[in-house]
Amino acid sequence: MTADTAQIHLPAVKAGGRRISITRKAKRAAEIEEIEDVNEVAHDYPRPNPEAENHHKEENGYKNRKERRGSSQKTLYEPLPEPPAYSHANKKTMQIKQPAGPIMIKPGLEATARSLKRIQNQSTPIVHIAGTNGKGSTSAFVDALLASYGYRVGRFNSPHLIEERDSVSVGGAPCDASVWNSTQRDLLAHDTNFSTLTNFEKTTVTAFSILSSKDIDIAVVEVGMGGLLDATNAFERQGRDSIAVITPIALDHQSWLGDSIEEITKHKMGIVTTLTKAVVVAPQIHSVVVKIIETRCSELGVPIYITESNSLDASTPLKLTGSHQLDNASTALSVLRALKAHCTGFVNVDLSNDERVKHTLSQVTLRGRSDRQVIDGAIVDGAHNPAAIMRLRETLPLTPHTFILAFSQGKEVDEMLTLLARPHDSIIFVPFSTPEGMPWVKSMDTAELEERARKLLCEVDISTAENVQDALRQCQLNEANDVVIAGSLYLVADVYRMCS
């Protein structure tokens, strides 16, 4: 199977966001669950600007959809006004559930947009990646593939692991501390708005400023949380090619994004506007996600690429282990297809050389994802929600394991423990360090975790330790094999700090 045929299940795309399935249109229709009233999940999207929307459609050869379907036809989303892309998304038009306690996160795009508008280079193409799981891995695969064709890639991932600057890389190299610090000093000196931003907004503006100053061909940007009101969504779309990517969506950050898959999907799809060149969808756990995305893209007239699970040859050797990583790699290939078809400057992309593609994918690594290099005899993985924990468990043999775990407050701990632990496993609960600049992030109390685990699990040895170093010492003393460190990216960050 060649890299091109590995993508054979991707639909052909035509104007208006409608897709023609090559091999499985009937199957797709049978698999997608019916939603009794899918409009209920999108009632609070902003109202349309009909004149601007119809003008945009007419310029691109589209007819007014209301005329085609009749004015009584219900739609999933109202069309979004444009430009600029950020004008449609604010706290007045879409309320996010606020967690209890002090507000340390400020959803909304206006403040970030004011600073991003100052950046001179507003034309660099962007691959914008939202989703619950797989964003980082997909971005790494996209980066590597584009680099293999000679493109210079800038990348912004979040959260950072050790320092804020490690969230940015250019040409595969992390941002230098002097560049990061000098950029922030310059922003503080010349942008009066910058000092009013939240920490993540400052990180986003700093990252975009650095990437815009580098000689890059394309930027790959990972959403921080959600999508619609995430600071990364404030970039200017006018005059810029952009591809939106939706990785697998599952329950996470419910206190911010909503308690249902439908609500969360609505937030993730907020990164798509009528100026988006195409949407790439990764294989999804919940079929309702695909239904919502397809309807949304149809409303906006945006082409959509549906990536099939198992569309990449399972024999493809990946350092990032697990079937889910094959799906992430397949999604990255879909992104390159979309870039070549819909964006200027990507004629060099040629996926017909199967061996070249496989070799590139096989070399991709990402810190905190199935990392077997940082500690001898241990796997370090940032899985921190039930869907990711389930994927992690699938990669592990059935032999007994020792899990060193930490969880952020508010996570679905009971479900994750049930998915992860097996009889004869051992669990050591530890706290993680509160990340710098993120005082709202708290580690769950280890005594509480121990109590909950003892009620849930049978034939599992359960203990606590002061920190990850002490837990590893316990493992050494007990001659534990198959150690897995997981549950939080902040715990993963502690591991890398310890090892550095």
Automatic annotation (TrEMBL):
Residues 40-64 have a biased composition (Basic and acidic residues). One of its GO terms (molecular function) is ATP binding. InterPro entries: Folylpolyglutamate_synth, Mur-like_cat_sf, Mur_ligase_C_dom_sf, Mur_ligase_cen. Residues 36-89 are annotated as: Disordered. Keywords: ATP-binding, Ligase, Magnesium, Metal-binding, Nucleotide-binding. One of its GO terms (cellular component) is mitochondrion. Residues 129-282 form the Mur ligase central domain. Belongs to the folylpolyglutamate synthase family. This is Mur ligase central domain-containing protein. It comes from Wallemia hederae.
